[in-house]
Every structure is written in C-alpha cells, then in structure tokens.
Design brief:
Length: 140
C-alpha cells in the first residue's frame, strides 16, 4: 500500500514540479537553450512525460524503504532525495553537455532542476512512508 500511495503522490508531485520549473519559472530559459533540439510544445508527447514521472516515482518509492534507517521521516526522505538526486543529476549534466549542442550553463541549470525535483519528491515519499510507518528489517 505504501508503494502504491508513494508512487501516486510522487508522480503527481513530479508532474506539478515539472510544470512549475520547466514551464512557469524557467520556460523561456529552457526554450532559449534547448528549443532547437526539443519538440515544439504542440508536438510534446505529454502521455510519455506522465509515464516517465510515474515510473520515476515508482522506482524512488521502491528504493526508499531499502535504505530507511528509522529516523525522522522528513530527514530520511530529504537525505534520500539528495543521494538519488545527485546520483542521477550530476552524470546527466555531463551526458547532456557532451552529447547535445547546449551551453554548459544550460546543462547545469537543467541538472539542478532535476536535483531539486528529486529532493522534494524524496522528502514527500519519506513523509508518506514515515506517516504510515516502515518497519526496519528484522524488526518484529
């Protein structure tokens, strides 16, 4: 049940954060720096974005309890978000800059957005697992 709830809420959080960061806050920056290599907004495959975000939430929610140490749900989720966010966003920045015709600054901004989204989603997943309760392995 925790996995399902965390996946649903995490997917919704990622979708909302993606819209806030990539459309509202950094929309013109993204268009200016990635517009030549991205689909036009009219040609976006929104369904694929939704699937990707819910898959990301599923994997985050699946991995989270494996490292849960029994501490504060907010702290555990935040630290989990940082760890997974760094694991994914730092290499992504280098891959993006190495393979696409973008300025390094644009790649870094995109990586930071990815990191922040993962931290917030990790925090939310930690709060959900903490609120519902996660037993440590070996606990009765």
């Amino acid at each position: 049940m925790k996995l399902i709830l965390s996946t649903i809420v995490g997917g919704i959080v990622l979708f909302i954060l993606g819209w806030v960061f990539y459309v509202l806050v950094f929309g013109s920056f993204i268009t200016e720096n990635f517009g030549k290599i991205m689909r036009s907004p009219d040609d976006y495959k929104l369904w694929a974005i939704v699937v990707a975000q819910f898959l990301q939430a599923l994997f985050l929610a699946w991995i989270y309890p494996k490292g849960y140490k029994g501490g504060s749900p907010a702290k555990e989720g935040f630290m989990f978000g940082i760890a997974i966010g760094l694991l994914t966003s730092v290499p992504y920045v280098f891959y993006l800059w190495a393979q696409y015709p973008v300025k390094w600054q644009a790649a870094v901004v995109d990586g930071i957005i990815m990191l922040v989204m993962t931290i917030i989603t990790g925090l939310v997943i930690g709060l959900i697992y903490g609120r519902i309760g996660v037993k440590k392995e070996g606990a009765a």
